[in-house]
Amino acid sequence: MNALAKLKTLTPSVNQIVRTYALKSDLKIKWVRPEKIPCYKPEKSGDLQSLPTFAGTELMKDYRDSKELETANEHVRNLFTIQHNRRREMVENFKEDMVRRVYRHELDYGSIEAQLGLMTARIRSLQDYMEKFPRQSVVKVQLKELIDKRKRFLRYLRRWDYRRFEYMLEKLDLVYKPYPTHFHWITRKDSLRKLTNIHCDQIKETRLEEYRRQLESQQLDFLENKLKTLEFIRKEQTECQVPVTVSNDEIKAVRKQYEELKQKRAAAAESLKEPEDS
């Protein structure tokens, strides 16, 4: 009984002031933590295309110019095609295709363009491999290093030869995604602060829009009253023989503005009636 009495004394009374504002349940702002995308994914690396699927009937790189295979049996010829050999042969074909897009001459494998083509082919082949075997940590590290190396090459080109940089991005189907200048962790507090600012800006814009519509609805009556007031002031000043402060040009300008706005409102009302009648 003594323990129950102590608990009753600890509970807040009915008349006690309780903090009931700014509760999480009352907030209309909901924050969902963004999904973390690994840096080796195409969304982060900037590759717009994946590893292409070859037909498989193409000959390997070292046997394309072989005269013996031209007259050889079909079964013998199939032994030297890509589909009956290792995956590396298909990757070699893809590397050669990527280099041919950007090389300077037929024997060019050392220029920065050729190196970027080779790196892009290697990156896309490793990305395709990681999709099938995502737990290969060694391949993951190699892929990260290759992506970083290609970014350094692209940053050098962007700095010293921007036209060639744009040419490489177009030919290799890439998007340059540099590292952020300022790194910051994604936290719930900062994200909620940004969402709150966006929410407040939206409320401000909606209220300003409502106030603008309210003023526009009163604009016609305001111009009519202004026109009558100016005419009355000018009439009274001329009758009392005092200096006239309202000129005819001001009255004409207000009357013109009033007539134009009246015609515009009438045209808008007619345009709204036409779809209703149809």
Tags for this entry?
278 residues, single chain, ribosomal protein
Question: Briefly, what is this?
Answer:
The protein contains 10 helices and no strands.
How much helicity do the residues have?
55-70%
- Taken together, the total number of domains comes to 2
Low-confidence stretches: none
**How does the overall form come out from the CA principal axes?**
elongated
How much beta, percentage-wise?
under 5%
Q: Strand tally, please?
A: 0
Major beta sheet summary = none
Q: Could you give the order of the helices and strands?
A: HHHHHHHHHH
- Report, as a whole number of angstroms, the end-to-end distance: 81 Å
**How many alpha or pi helices?**
10
Based on CA atoms alone, the radius of gyration comes out at: 38 Å
GO cellular component, one term: mitochondrial small ribosomal subunit
Pfam families: Ribosomal_S15 (PF00312)
Family: Belongs to the universal ribosomal protein uS15 family.
InterPro entries: Ribosomal_uS15 (IPR000589), Ribosomal_uS15_bac-type (IPR005290), uS15_NS1_RNA-bd_sf (IPR009068), uS15_ribosomal (IPR052137)
Task: Please describe what this structure looks like.
The chain is mainly alpha-helical and 278 residues long. The protein folds into two domains: 36-172, no CATH class; 188-271, no CATH class. The chain has ten helices and no strands. Helix 6 packs antiparallel against helix 7 (137-160), helix 7 (137-160) runs antiparallel to helix 8 (162-172) and helix 9 crosses helix 10 (248-277). The termini are far apart. 10% of the residues are buried. The mean pLDDT is 84. GO terms for molecular function: RNA binding; structural constituent of ribosome. This is Small ribosomal subunit protein uS15m. It is found in: Mitochondrion.
